[in-house]
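$ fold --in a.seq
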Amino acid sequence: ESCGAGCRKGYDGAYVDLFCNAPTLRFLSGATPHCAAKVCERNLPKGTGLTSDCLGKRTNQSCSVTCKRGFETVATEEESHATCLSTGAFTSSFVECSRMACGDLSATP
């Protein structure tokens, strides 16, 4: 008898045929599929004042999301992490950033 094996969701690779070894039928023979994690391309962190190292991350990899210079977090966390899911999208809870106030500029020379 024969069956097949392929890559899990979030990974690319060719489907391979496997065969039962006669006469014991206790194990399969054949090539093992070679699977490579897919690059996440959906729900990349974006927004006013956000920066991240998420570009090019692949399934199950994480990245940091922070506020750019001149911006500050609205919440208490200084950074958040996004994870590339098997769906090809990043998790969607990122820090929120707002432009920092300059303060009183009349005192500057």
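$ fold --in b.seq
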Amino acid sequence: EQVAQDSPSQQSPLGHGGERDVLWVRLAHRQTGRTAFFVNHHGPLPINSGGVCGGVATAGNILRTIAQHGQPNDAVIVVGDFNADANSTTARELKAKLNHIFGGVVDGGIDNIF
């Protein structure tokens, strides 16, 4: 599902739109029936911009995907190269709703696990 788009200055001169998606899957443990909702995201460029619509919208779109496709008892795991460090609007918005488990060190911590 598309949740963001690269800023025009970051898009390919070949006409590629720089669409940024989340890929998600719901998994169930066969014996216990417990479920996990797993989301992977590769965030928009430039770093910390949130892309065309900004960090608030990007985070909101990720959270909306979780709300639309997840179930109330799912363990939610969100991972990826968000192209957004710990101080970005995207990360702050996600941290307001999800537990931040890990932040990498590359480019100020753009790799995250929630």
